[in-house]
Description:
The structure is a homodimer. Chain A has helices at about 5-15, 60-75, 95-110, 160-170, 185-195, 200-205, 220-230, 245-265, 280-290; strands at about 20-25, 30-35, 40-50, 80-90, 115-125, 130-135, 155, 210-215, 235-240, 270-275, 295-300, 305-310, 315-320. In chain A, strand 1 and strand 2 (about 30-35) form a beta hairpin. Chain A is of the alpha+beta class. The longest helix of chain A has 18 residues, at about 60-75. The first copy, chain A, has two domains: about 5-135, CATH 3.30.1330.10; about 155-320, Phosphoribosyl-aminoimidazole Synthetase, Chain A, domain 2. In chain A, helix 2 runs parallel beside helix 6, helix 4 packs across helix 5 (about 185-195) and helix 4 (about 160-170) packs across helix 8. Strand 3 of chain A pairs antiparallel with strand 2 of chain B, so a sheet runs across the interface. Chains A, B: Catalyzes the ATP-dependent phosphorylation of thiamine-monophosphate (TMP) to form thiamine-pyrophosphate (TPP), the active form of vitamin B1.
Amino acid sequence: MSLAEFALIDRILARTTARADVVLGIGDDAALLQPRAGEQLVITTDTLNSGVHFPVETPAYDIGWKTLAVNLSDLAAMGARPAWCTLALSLPDADADWIEAFADGFFALADEHDIVLVGGDTTRGPLSLSVTALGQVAPGQALRRDRAQLGDDIWVSGTLGDAAGALRLWQQNRLKVAVATLLSDDETLRERLLRPIPRVTLGLRLRAYAHAAVDISDGLLSDLGHIAARSGVRAEVEADALPISSALREQLGREGARDCALRGGDDYELCFTVAPSQRDAIHALSASLGLPLTRIGRIVEGEGVHCADADATDGGYQHFSERR
Amino acid sequence: MSLAEFALIDRILARTTARADVVLGIGDDAALLQPRAGEQLVITTDTLNSGVHFPVETPAYDIGWKTLAVNLSDLAAMGARPAWCTLALSLPDADADWIEAFADGFFALADEHDIVLVGGDTTRGPLSLSVTALGQVAPGQALRRDRAQLGDDIWVSGTLGDAAGALRLWQQNRLKVAVATLLSDDETLRERLLRPIPRVTLGLRLRAYAHAAVDISDGLLSDLGHIAARSGVRAEVEADALPISSALREQLGREGARDCALRGGDDYELCFTVAPSQRDAIHALSASLGLPLTRIGRIVEGEGVHCADADATDGGYQHFSERR
């Protein structure tokens, strides 16, 4: 890319909104930020590579949205209020239309959550996008993976498996994804894969109730496994309790849908543990947010994730060890 | 890469040292940090792509070193004290020896500057490395590009053009760079290209003297152009005053060396402006750090960067407009 092309990209990406705590934004060697007094910083980095984390034909708007969404989801899982982010963007060439659409998706989500782009680096290379997102939280209030308590209920937000289902259909060429066309039949699952909703508000509200939380990026069994391993407990999940969308069940059937819900990644819902005494509060929170929150199991003594499933051969429990 | 391979990489990269202000490091959805009360955050992101920002045959240790160095250099140019960083690492495959050597280089420099790795993301893809580095500075003390004053002297640290010279020789196959072999003849230039020294301590000390500062990553004319443009001034440089190493002059001759010093990138020296009344202080600082600091010009009314060169045809001045 020429220097003029880099300059064009920088101009397009400079259309971020203002925050009073950005002392110096894009344009110097680094940005200067004034964090809120006494609060802790929450920082996360996630990368999306073309052909690995999204199909190569994914529309630019959706890539922009998802690039930020996966990072906001990590902030949500910590109960942090989003503040600032940087973007490392590797591009094979400078296509102004592509960059504009990418920026439209990125900033649509950024503006919604009042997170501003304060820096980054545009380089020539295979399409790859890394965001580092920062948020703030009062000391002691962050939602961690290592605080699940014996007897806690296990909850998840939204429905599970939709993104994985969409990807399967896409790979089977059964989901129509022409770049400029949204087809209403497939839209529900497609949107769940390409425009995940980071549960930022839920994460903020959960600071009052949850003992432990994680976002579901690698699949429920895998991510809940992180809570079990780091908290030194066993997580028991009722497969029949999993919230599964009618769209997923229609497309993949009961077994396929359940498999996606247990093992599929990319949902970016939150999984969290709460004392049983708070069930009414969580139901009220669900109603207040207009977001399903479903109790799917409980925390007991032991280790690993175990799933009660009528189809399993060993008395109804399947065991899943933590993935990594 | 398999999950076991990702786990291996994570283990190798988890060998970071501790800092009291890291409340929660690698292993949760995000890291938790406790910034120093009242200070501002300084944040920068830089990416290195294989074959673009370093030759594909660059040793892993040097890639690890340089990946962090280019980001520390940005913190140095702001006068910030380094604190934390994240690393987004895309790898085509998991080669444990490569990762170990990469980590050796990365952490050698990190430990030197007390900056700790608090998170990141390892993905499969073409070799690409993005670091986001954070530092801290007291309000009002950061070194910015937009504060150069009329009458200021222009200074640079170290020698200029060595990295660009090394790259030219490398491309001409005149620099011997066998992966495991350092050849003493070429070592000076090679080290300047592959293991740049971020001028962190210099940046911290310059907070007491400098009006404006920038690091030289894209070449003196280009980076000094940023100071001129953002400060609304003209920068006049004396080509004969440029600090050029004997190694560079021997390899490339007077003209080639000067061209590298003016236009070559990747030096990661600091360029800064200081009132003439502080010349003695800067000379003393140079002696105290054991680092050459050379006065190469001054800030005057006007715009752009102008270079007084005995070879130029228009009365001795060549004009260079800002690159971007």
